[in-house]
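Researcher: Here's the sequence for the chain we discussed earlier.
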Amino acid sequence: MGTWNSRGLRGSTLEDMINMSNESYREKGLALIQKIPTPITPVRIDQQTRHITLAYFDQQSTVDYIGAVQGIPVCFDAKECATDTFPMMNIHEHQVKFMKDFEKQGGVSFIILFYSHKNEIPPKIVIVKRKINKDLQTLKQSFIFTHIKSLIM
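Model: Thanks. This is the structure I predict for it:
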């Protein structure tokens, strides 16, 4: 398992946008979607600020968000990319397995890719919805922004 300070806060811009959207959906009664915290074990804490500066992941996480949209169970993972190419190795096997199992139970699972370097308003966010059970395993080594339109819902 990796450590928190080596990978922490990646994708925080995207997560901030998703969290604000989810709060708005909740207030309007459209959806209830919650961020799933990743369990960590703190190793080093800055005594002055009381902030965790080093931690280890307790277990592999599944997806970033889970909830219901007008009665339909949904789960999704949020991935942020600073280049035009998003490596498939950033979607882990245990995440794909969880999404497969979620779909077997009648839920909808997907991945949100945010191409942060595009620096455009509205931001370049792509929702990838494929049948998780086989398609993620057979995709090429990466999602390339210019070719991803065929993957968009």
